[in-house]
Fold this protein.
Amino acid sequence: MFKLNPKLSQKISYSILFCATILAIIPVAVIIFIIIKNGASAITWEFLTSMPKNGMRGGGILPAIIGTLSIVMCAIAVTLPIGVCAAIYLNEYAKDNLLTRIIKLAIVNLAGVPSVVYGLFGLGIFVMFLKLGVSIIAGALTLAIMELPVIITTARGALNSVPYSFREASLSLGVSRWQTIRHVVLPNALPGILTGAILSIARISGETAPIMFTAAAFYVPHLPTSAFDQVMALPYHLYIISTQIPGMPKNIIFGTALVLLMMVLSMSLIAIIARIYFRKRRKW
Amino acid sequence: MKRKIIDTIIEKIIFFCGILAIVFVTLIFGFLLKEGFAFFKEYGVISFIAGKLWYPTSDPAQFGILSMIVGSLLVTAGACVIAVPIGIMAALYISEIAPKGVRDVLKSFIELMAAVPSVVIGFVGMVTLVPLVRTIFDLPTGLTAFSGSIMLAFMAMPTIVTISEDAIRSVPWSYKEGALALGATKWQTIRRIVLKAAMPGIIAAVMLGIGRVVGETMAVMMITGNAAHIPSSIFEPVRTMTATIAAEMGETVRGGMHYRALFAIGLVLFIITFIVNFIADLFLGKSKK
């Protein structure tokens, strides 16, 4: 049988792997490029700061931007403290027992639940059962539960990377466990926790399915005044104008997509760069 | 003394937050189960899962989701065929071959890819890929399972690449040294030793990728055409379970049969993703040992 020289076969395989890597990242790069190229012309100060006009075929997207920001900020305000506490419990207190294993399984499972199922759950429990109505708060709570496993996992990673000797030094001075965590472990884990939080904010800003039935409205002619208002939201707005409204000018759709994309990507990029920076500066 | 009390209170709060994850999973499952059971009692599980017709608003209403199960499976399988080989090869390249600088840039870019919202991917797919598929394959519509599979493959890619890459990189250095010392080329080492040792982690990566694809909603709803019939080929429109929930929830009467049927679909999705993630977790545990 014909057999390839191992050196040649290595060269060929490396080239194939290289092509596969290109193939894996090019499509998304192309998607980002298409959005920027077609959407850049729509971005004006007026587009970002005015209300939609003519059945959303003109004007700006201010209410959608404000809506998304308010839902996301409420969500992170709820989920960050809970997630960090849960991570502290798992990393600092939990023993390797059945309860801990169940908690870990629950986190894995929570992370895998489809976003639309979170939407159903939010509709059932927050909108209807707790009678919050379709509102910022109902959408924010839904997103908060959805993002909880991600926050727990990243915060746990950050806590875990603080060397054990730091804790030992503090504990051996007679400092209590909580005081050690509060004054030694947490400050050192803070950069990791915060970059994780920014990545989470970016991710939930782009979510559509969980807020579809819990917070987002087709069109609201005014800006939200309380947490119990329905709001427009960027991702849902993009879905609406690209599928439900006939004769929608293409550049407005692309412009909306660009604003959403930039919001998400710039936050992710900041988090990634911050993480690299903090890792380089780390004292241990 | 006061400090001790505060400490105890804080530790209680921390413990409470720790078990919240269990509370939420139970709540979600319980809620889906409650609405789902109310629906199954009236309609029957078998006629729901195996029924071919979905006419939720006609009289008598039909709630068969077989076509959606097939639709979800078809789109997921298509996405896997594309994303799994490419994803694993990319992970091998990034972890074993790329120089360190290139590797860091590639990893950061893949993390950025994961953040692109699915509604944006759906929109771009609608205006670029869908017309392309229609003309290339000369179809009546480009809104097909095939188009959906391609777009979903991109979305599963970051998950598959990142987790496979972790698994490949955690293969002990001594395994590679052993093979290289015996005169194997670097590629032979990668293919015969590294790939084999990293397999449990790679399988976990694939399972998590599948989980992500099955649950994907917006892009699928915008690209696959949403026709509730059993497709005879991948070039026909299909409708997935997730898209059905998202598209129809807004129009239902709260608490009615249609509403409950959508919760029952949610229950099916929950169980599928639970199993998929559970298997992934088992393999991840194995790969860490």
